[in-house]
Structure prediction request, 164 residues.
Amino acid sequence: MLKPSPTPTTSARPIPAVPGLPYFGSLRDLQRDPLGFGLRVAQDYGDVVRATMLGDETVLLYNPDDIQHVLQANSRNYNKQTFDYQLLYPLVGQGLLTSDGDFWLRQRRLMQPAFHRQRITGLAGMMVEATQAMLASWQRASARGEPIAIDQELMRLTLTIAGK
Prediction:
């Protein structure tokens, strides 16, 4: 979650807020069912929503244009100095995920060749193959009446693709 830099801004409309417990806010709902929480919030409150978690107010964005505005077009107006990133830093260090500003930009430029369109296109076959293997295992589990932990399965798929 990104935090706007401390520059005064005005909003043309009030941003709805997700109700929650004092201090904890929506954290328990998010922990119990992250995907369901995100879907419910977007459906119930719209594309731009405020949520409090551990006393820190966060703005959730669901519209791709808004996300592009924050992450790409105006990234210098936002920073990663949030509670979430402070928790991540000891686990993952100062990498592309947790860094900001010029240091992030240098890291991003070093990584850019790995994400070139032709390189990604070359990996598409492997990604499709890994996804098809996962879906086949889902079909087998479904035929046996077994539940599927989609969050774990998608994490496994992501790690499989990243590992290859």
